[in-house]
Structure formats: structure tokens, C-alpha cells
Design goal:
Layout lengths: L3 E6 L6 H9 L4 E6 L1 H6 L1 H5 L7 E4 L2 E4 L1 H11 L7 H27 L1 H25 L12 H16 L8 H11 L2 H7 L2 H4 L10
Parallel strand pairs: 1-2
Antiparallel strand pairs: 1-3, 3-4
The structure holds ligand GVX.
């Protein structure tokens, strides 16, 4: 039986990075897909600590908060740096990715028609921060010399932004190389090519 279970809506959404990390780490997982209709009945919502999905189960451990899933898997699978200093930097960059993801989700769900063009125009001001980090750290990862959960998080949010704006990395060579390198990792490539990945919309409102 797969040790991990994701309970979420039929979207990539806030589980995109977790699924890519699980795939790259050679892990299997079960998906419990919740329809919006069932969710609105409220029974499952009452059982969620913060009244929201996704939910992540690791054996008897039940977690909520998507970034918590990434940190937990980072600890379990050696993707959280080699010491406390690297771990702190990984946390910092993942928090920075979360800031970008939050801006993206706000535009997608609340301002798509009126704010998409301005969001894309302002995007370089946010992406350049991650470009500078990757240009400085010659390993090809955000921190240290091996992949961390923050790399998966950044990678996934960049994939989503490449759908929104296919040219958004054209003037950012370190980020372009980062995406190309992670996309070529055999287990990530296999997952991104899979129907399980491709069948899910990025967001719950059909916007991307
Ligand atoms: N900080 C949390 C945020 C969890 C969250 O926002 N969950 C959303 C779904 S994830 C997401 S990207 N929400 C954006 C809008 C959306 C709503 C419902 C389904 C799909 C998307 C949710 O459960 N909405 C339903 C509700 O609150 O009753 C996390 O990172 O997991």
C-alpha cells in the first residue's frame, strides 16, 4: 500500500510541487479526489484542521498546509539541506516561492480578466530575485549542492508561469536552465509526461 495519500480537488493547485517531489524521490502515493459538489456538503470540511484541502497522510500522520507537506518530505527524503544553515536558507527561499504563488493565485482567482496583463508585466521584478540566487549558486539548485523541497516548489510555480506567459524566462538564463534541468530528470520527465499529471487543470476555475 502506498505510504502517502493526497486528498484534494481535481487540480494541480497546491499539490503540484508535492506530486513532483514524490515522483522525483521515487515515491508512490494514493490520490483521493474530492468533487466540489461533495466538498460543499461540508462533512469533509469539518474534519480539516483549517477547514481546507489539500490533506496529506503519511501512515498515521495527517497533515494540512501544502508547504508543510514539502518540509515533511524534505526531512524524510534528504531534501532539506545538509545542516541547519542550509535548512534555514531553504525555508527562506520556499517562503519566497510562497509569496510568488500567493500573488499568482490572487490574480488567477480574483483578477484574471483585469489583472493578467499587469501581472505578466510585473513578473520579471519577482522572477529576477530567484534568477540572482540561481546565478550565484553554481550547483544549479537554490541552496547547497543537492535538490531541496524549495527547488521543487520553485520549479512547479515556474511551470505554471510558463503556461501563463511562455516567454517569461526568455531573459532569465539561470531560471531557464533550472527548469530545463529539472524537467530532464528522468522521474520528473516521466511524471510530467503522464496522464495523471496532464489530465489535471492547473487551477480550479479553468484559468491558467
Ligand atoms: N495554506 C493552505 C491553503 C489551502 C487552500 O487554499 N485550500 C483551498 C483549495 S486550494 C486553492 S489553490 N484554492 C484556490 C481556490 C480553489 C477553491 C476550491 C477548489 C480549488 C481552488 C480550499 O480548500 N478551498 C475550499 C474552502 O476553503 O472551503 C495550503 O497551502 O494548503
Amino acid at each position: 500500500m502506498a505510504p502517502y495519500t493526497i486528498t484534494y480537488f481535481a487540480v494541480r493547485g497546491r499539490c503540484g510541487a508535492t506530486r513532483i517531489m514524490l515522483a522525483d524521490q521515487g515515491q508512490e502515493w494514493k490520490e483521493i479526489v474530492v468533487s466540489f459538489e461533495d466538498w460543499m456538503k461540508g462533512d469533509l470540511k469539518k474534519t480539516c484542521v483549517f477547514g481546507q484541502l489539500p490533506k496529506f497522510e503519511d501512515g498515521g500522520l495527517t497533515l494540512f498546509q501544502s508547504n508543510t507537506f514539502l518540509r515533511h518530505l524534505g526531512r524524510k527524503h534528504g531534501a532539506y539541506g545538509k545542516n541547519d544553515c542550509e535548512a534555514a536558507q531553504i525555508d527562506m527561499f520556499n517562503d519566497g516561492v510562497e509569496d510568488l504563488r500567493t500573488k499568482y493565485l490572487k490574480m488567477i482567482y480574483q483578477e484574471y480578466e483585469t489583472g493578467k496583463d499587469a501581472y505578466i508585466k510585473d513578473l520579471p521584478n519577482h522572477l529576477c530575485k530567484f534568477e540572482a540566487v540561481l546565478a550565484k549558486n553554481k550547483s544549479g539548485f537554490l541552496v547547497g549542492d543537492s535538490i531541496s523541497f524549495a527547488d521543487y516548489s520553485l520549479f512547479e510555480v515556474l511551470l505554471n508561469h510558463l503556461v501563463l506567459s511562455p516567454t517569461c524566462l526568455d531573459s532569465l538564463p539561470a531560471l531557464k536552465s533550472f527548469v530545463d534541468t529539472l524537467s530532464a530528470r528522468p522521474k520528473i520527465k516521466a511524471f510530467l509526461d503522464s496522464e495523471d499529471y496532464k489530465k489535471l487543470p492547473i487551477n480550479g476555475n479553468g484559468k491558467q
